[in-house]
Amino acid sequence: MNRPAVLIVLAGVVFGALVGFAVPTFSGPAYRSGATIVFTAVQVQARPATASVARHISQRMPSWAKVAASGAVAGEAGLRGGESITAHEISGVQSLRIELDSPDRDGLAERATAAANTVIAVITRMEFNRVSGVVFETGSEPESTSGAWAVWGAVLGAVLGAVLGWLGVSLRRPGRWVSQVAEGGSRIVGAEAFATDVDQEMRSLWAAVRTRRGLLVVGLGFFAIAGYAATGSVGPPFVVLVVAGLAAVRDPRWIAGAVLVLGISVLPPKLELVQIGPVTPTVLEVAVLIGLVVLWKRPGKSIFTVPLVLLMAAVAIGGMLGVTGGGEFSEVADAMRALLLVPLAFLIVYRAFAGRLAQLVAIVAVGAAVASAVELLAAVMDWQRLLVDQRSSVITGDDTAEVARLSAPVLPLWGPLLILLASGAFPARPRWRLLLIALPGLAHEALSFNRSTWAPLLACVVLVAVARFGSRGVVKRLLAAAVLGLLTLGLASGGALGQTGEALAGRVTSVFSGEALVEDSLADRVRENTAALNTLLEHPVLGTGVGVPYGGEIISYDAVHDRTVVEPRPWIHNQYLRIWLWFGAFGLLAVGLLMVRVASAVVHGWRRRAPGTVLVVALGLGLACMATQSIFQTTLIDRPSLVVVALTLAMLGLAADWRPQVRQGGTTPLSAKRIMTR
Fold first, then answer.
1. How deeply is 659 buried, as exposed, middle or buried, from its count of CB atoms within 10 A (0-12, 13-18, 19+)?
2. Per the count of CB atoms within 10 A, which of 10, 293, 398, 676 is most buried?
């Protein structure tokens, strides 16, 4: 980076920090008042108090601190807008410090005292009146917390300023990486040529299946999946991995394919092997290790190399902070191993399929369709071992439908893949083949009942359709799709498609009726975000580290010991808050720079008229779709989602440098109306 670029980025950091520092003051002041509660045991039976009774309170205090900050107390206390309760245990004195945050100073001390009394009432009720509590110290004089929010805003503003400054520099004066983006081609001819290449690869796949080697590959895949489904043993997938590893010595595509099958198919991604010390490696991780050994010396520097190196550094720093900050080593190690799948799986797929992008797209499309078809069949046949993360009910509003809610590792792949199928860089004819690939994915997406993934995916598909067909063509297709959708929705609501169709119709209509906005799941995620923000107020720069609880809670009832149990919530749905918590501001910056490189690759691919422009735009939208879904889903700890990110980045890196092969006789471009070039 040259000196002007550095100055621009630094200016962005300073300006962003100043704006971030000032913004919290625009939203008004923030205040905090605290009250102290002291608990005592109530002797239920007429006998002298014992040590076990007194010990009950000290054992329960951590859980009660979580209860005090839970939605149960917030709802009963009648908190005002912008108010939240936090609680801290005072060690050794059987006390809780209750703190009420509010934008309103007037009467805050009295409301803090009332909140403390509400905490006592809720905990006493949960403990079946076996304990009692008293407000030992009433609400304190309100103190301003605007300074803490200003620091928090300054850190976030500095990160956003750096990212925006880097984006401006990257778009205006990119570095040497831009030389890897192809130029001087025709978008129309390039899209047609790539679709032709994919068509040829798919025909070659079908022809190869009927050969002896093709039958061997299909047989190995069937052995891995059917063997695991029948026995539940890690043996069949591991045997197939060994075969792929041996074959990868001559052709590394074997081990890249094994990584994809083990990461994003119907097999559980955490098929664990023998424990080695505190860590138990998985079959997927062994496949990644073999891939690194085979491909380490193979050339292939990508446009995403620098951002991914920064991401690995952020993961390492977050892991060290997690270990030193009190996180359990097993949880820290598991999270870091999952996150490292992004750069490592990217390296394997990118280098193994260098120069064979069309073949990779064909394999991924056919493989995803087969995997989703197997998952749908497993749901019908009740093959439980292949129904990874399946749930047996769907809660929509106040209704609970006892229907299967499918997940499976292949599901995250369908977001980028459906966008790619609609882009024009994939052969649209014969239509039956395109439908044969897309329909299993559409059915799988529908039966996942994930509203938070439907909306970003639909928006990206519509955007691709506008670019491909123009506004008039999109209107016609949207009207046809709307009529078909309303007809299907009406039949499903009336019960013509069974209980699953009725539950799916209710799920869809809840988005438009506003019912989704009043569900417990939304309020639960708001409480997650509030707990995370309260923690980040104390650690805005470094975060907490990987595996350290952030303040979210899980409340359950222990029937054996007849008590309510509150445990730290290990997940949070907003992954950007998780990144900030785990990796600090540097982690946010690393992820932001990766996004900047993706956006820059799309823009410069379009400017330079790269032959693979259509593919680059589609894959960039696929990553944008996943980035949007990460606001609502736990993708950062989901291994299949991380492998999909690695795969999509690898395909985007290959697409940026893709050039059509020269064929004798030339090619006939398709009509511009059928290509995403407008």
1. middle
2. 676
